Amino acid sequence: MTKVVCEVLSNRQIAKLFYTMELTCETAAATRPGQFVNIALEGFYLRRPFSVSDWDDEKINIIYKVSGRGTAKMSGFSGGEKLDVLTGLGNGYDLEAAKGKRVLIVGGGAGVPPLIGLTRRLLEKGGHIEAVLGFNDAESVIGKETFEALRLKTGIATVDGSVGFEGTVVDLMSRADFDYYYACGAMQMLSAVHALGKEGQLSFEARMACGFGACMGCSCKTLSGHKRICTDGPVFYSREVSFGAV
């Protein structure tokens, strides 16, 4: 974990309630896709956690959904704002676990962003990779153009059928040919993904107070006992997850 001051380079709306923000700062603490940052906002007591969608040596990109007063304030940033940020938080995805396997990227709604940086790095290693992304409706679709620009076969599911397959991302996932997955999304989605019985890794979304394991506010139950989503996760192997009591 590293505390840095970041400057907002850009901030623009990309879908209904979704924005993409580019921050310039020291990024050495970002070592694995699936990690997150915790941003302090003036006038708010608790920091806001956001998954890192991608990063390089000088910049971090986050894609966030406006869901409360804090993110609503962020959506008004136009560039030049300075933010107090904790970076390099959490346990990210294990890229080596999928070596030699047919990989499926599975994202639902606000869970899509961290899968972008993950996919870029998996592609650098080679291998067979496809993606399925799920949303409520056409206005909420994010990441589609990015995944297609990576020349990745990408299936889109919408609950109302306004884009792609009518149904859930898990419905689409059950039709895919793969033997390892990387998933991120709401708990209900992850539970359904896990129930398919395939091997993979799941990134949990959770409300966090501190973001670095001090408060135990985001603990969840696994087969080896309670673990903290912010430090032991947010990424867990499918074999260690216990749904129903998470």
List keywords for this structure.
single chain; Rossmann fold; 2 domains; alpha/beta; seven-stranded antiparallel beta sheet; 37% strand; 246 residues; Elongation Factor Tu (Ef-tu), domain 3; seven-stranded mixed beta sheet; 5 helices
Q: What does this molecule look like?
A:
It contains five helices and 16 strands. With 246 residues, it is α/β, with parallel strands linked by helices. The protein folds into two domains: 88 residues, Elongation Factor Tu (Ef-tu), domain 3 (Beta Barrel), CATH 2.40.30.10; 111 residues, Rossmann fold, CATH 3.40.50. Strands 4-3-7-1-2-6-5 form a seven-stranded antiparallel sheet. Strands 11-10-9-8-12-13-16 form a seven-stranded mixed sheet, sandwiched between helices. It has a two-stranded antiparallel ribbon with strand order 14-15. A hairpin with a 2-residue loop joins β14 and β15. The two termini are 25 Å apart. The model has no long low-confidence stretch (mean pLDDT 92).
Could you give the topology of this structure?
Layout (H helix, E strand, L loop, with lengths): L1 E14 L2 E7 L11 E5 L7 E4 L2 E2 L3 E7 L3 H6 L7 E8 L13 E6 L4 H13 L3 E7 L8 H6 L3 E6 L6 E2 L2 H5 L6 E6 L1 H9 L4 E5 L14 E4 L2 E4 L6 E3 L9
Parallel strand pairs: 8-9, 8-12, 9-10, 10-11, 12-13
Antiparallel strand pairs: 1-2, 1-7, 2-6, 3-4, 3-7, 5-6, 13-16, 14-15
Between the first and last Cα atoms, what is the distance in angstroms? Answer: 25 Å
Query: Order of strands across the biggest sheet?
Result: 4-3-7-1-2-6-5
- CATH topology of the largest domain, what is it called? Rossmann fold
Class based on secondary structure composition and strand pairing? alpha/beta
The CATH class name of the largest domain reads Alpha Beta
CATH superfamily of the largest domain: Nucleotide-binding domain of ferredoxin-NADP reductase (FNR) module
| Major sheet description | 7 strands, antiparallel
What's the mean pLDDT score? Answer: 92
Shape: globular
SSE pattern = EEEEEEHEEHEHEEHEHEEEE
Number of helices: 5
Number-wise, the strands total: 16
What percent of residues are in strands? 35-45%
- The rounded Rg comes to 17 Å
CATH-level-2 architecture of the largest domain: 3-Layer(aba) Sandwich
Unreliable stretches covering 5 or more consecutive residues: none
Roughly what percent helix? 10-25%
Count of domains: 2
